[in-house]
Design a protein that fits this description.
two-stranded antiparallel sheet, 6 strands
Length: about 425
């Protein structure tokens, strides 16, 4: 739902649910919205069982309860930031209790803060986790999400203090090579705070992730060459405007690690033009190939279409930029500049010297480039109040790939409940 990709796929109608979301033409019957909402509550149900049924009479049980509270808080952050008022369920319900009312937004945020605050003192540091337990929730994850919860509510001083504790712990750092942060070789690496652990194992059918394959370039419009990306179903091809944002910022390192233009592809013998010789791009394509969270052949499992690459839900670069934002908005630009410039130095960009509202705009740009394709852009634009402008014309012209467009007059931003809470905070 961000402004980074078009829906793509084989042709118009390949997946109506994705098209509706990407073009802001969705209503309450959208299947993708229903699936995500349902799965979040399935996760909350499992967390509730652990919190409700376990007695905290051993260290192990206390840790499991803290883990469950942390994950429950994450699920509710997704719900409240996307939907606004939702049911707040903290225990196992009986069948006659299933129809729960929506809670007030302030009540949901208060529960998120409580769950995380209670979990932090119990959870181990990342360095205290054994190799087999690194998939589990650590203190740093709870601290990062609590800081994020404060930031989303514009409690900037509280957010800055929470991020500062995490940074000062010395448990995390910036991985030196930006291009490999999200690759298999850096799973649970120095920059990882929390990630969804996946395996491409044919004996564990539900463990791998097919999203990488789904977002691989359409096989009818792809010549792989020696780049190492393989063909897929062609969903979510990058927008030209994202490529242009990297160029405008002079951000060569992150651009080359995030997406690639045709000239760069040619050096590998790679092409995203139709293999029938017509010269067109795939449906939704604008001439760019996604590399970050790409369909890398070496990370593919033996099960068809499944990849074992972990999904990072929180990493240190994100924390540094959230800390910079929290300090900037609470009036400490010196600290804000220190953290944003650490992120910029990693990719060979000069330090910023801006202050105040201009620094805030610089932080927004930095988040866009640092975290492209990492599932944060939509909620960032919502909470900043920038969504109506950023999405005003999204989906009104859908590229067919042959230089022509599908015109959709009813596409573009419409205000929904989830946005209104952040508008009131602004």
């Amino acid at each position: 739902m961000g402004d980074e990709v078009n829906t793509g796929g084989g042709a118009r109608g390949d997946n109506f649910g994705y098209e509706e979301l990407n073009e802001f033409r969705h209503g309450t019957s959208n299947s993708k919205i229903k699936d995500y909402f349902t799965n979040l509550y399935k996760g909350i149900y499992l967390c509730n069982l652990a919190v409700e049924r376990l007695e905290d009479d051993t260290e192990t049980k206390r840790q499991v309860i803290a883990e469950a509270k942390t994950i429950r808080a994450y699920y509710y952050m997704e719900l409240v930031s996307l939907w606004g008022r939702v049911p707040l369920v903290l225990r196992e319900l009986q069948p006659d209790e299933y129809a729960q009312p929506n809670a007030e937004i302030a009540e949901i945020w208060a529960q998120i803060e409580q769950d995380l605050a209670e979990a932090i003192p119990v959870l181990p540091l990342k360095s205290q986790q054994s190799s087999e337990n690194r998939v589990r929730t650590s203190k740093g994850a709870a601290q990062a999400w609590l800081g994020k919860a404060y930031l989303y509510q514009k409690k900037y001083q509280e957010a800055a203090a929470q991020f500062e504790e995490l940074i000062a712990s010395g448990e995390y750092g910036l991985h030196t090579e930006f291009a490999t942060i999200l690759r298999e070789e850096q799973e649970f690496g120095i920059e990882s705070i929390f990630e969804i652990s996946l395996v491409a194992d044919p004996s564990a059918e539900d463990e791998g992730d097919s999203d990488f394959y789904a977002c691989g370039p359409r096989d009818t419009h792809f010549t792989p060459g020696t780049l190492g990306i393989e063909a897929g179903w062609g969903f979510m091809p990058p927008k030209k405007k994202l490529y242009d944002a990297f160029v405008a910022a002079g951000d060569l390192v992150r651009r080359q690690a995030t997406l690639m233009n045709e000239e760069e592809m040619a050096a590998y013998g790679t092409s995203i033009r139709a293999i029938d010789g017509s010269g067109s791009f795939q449906y939704g394509g604008e001439g760019y190939l996604r590399l970050k969270y790409g369909a890398w052949y070496v990370e593919k499992g033996t099960t068809w279409g499944k990849y074992g690459t972990n999904i990072r839900l929180m990493r240190y670069g994100d924390v540094l930029l959230m800390a910079a934002e929290a300090y900037n908005r609470s009036g400490n630009d010196t600290r804000a500049l220190m953290y944003i410039n650490q992120v910029r130095d990693r990719v060979d960009l000069p330090p910023l010297t801006s202050t105040g509202d201009q620094l805030f705009e610089d932080i927004k740009t930095e988040r866009r480039l640092e975290l492209a394709f990492e599932h944060v852009r939509y909620q960032d634009l919502i909470r900043w109040g920038d969504a109506p402008t950023a999405f005003a014309d999204q989906g009104k012209q859908v590229p067919r790939g042959d230089g022509t467009y599908i015109e959709l007059a009813d596409a573009g931003w419409k205000e929904k409940t989830g946005f209104s809470q952040f508008r009131k905070m602004k």
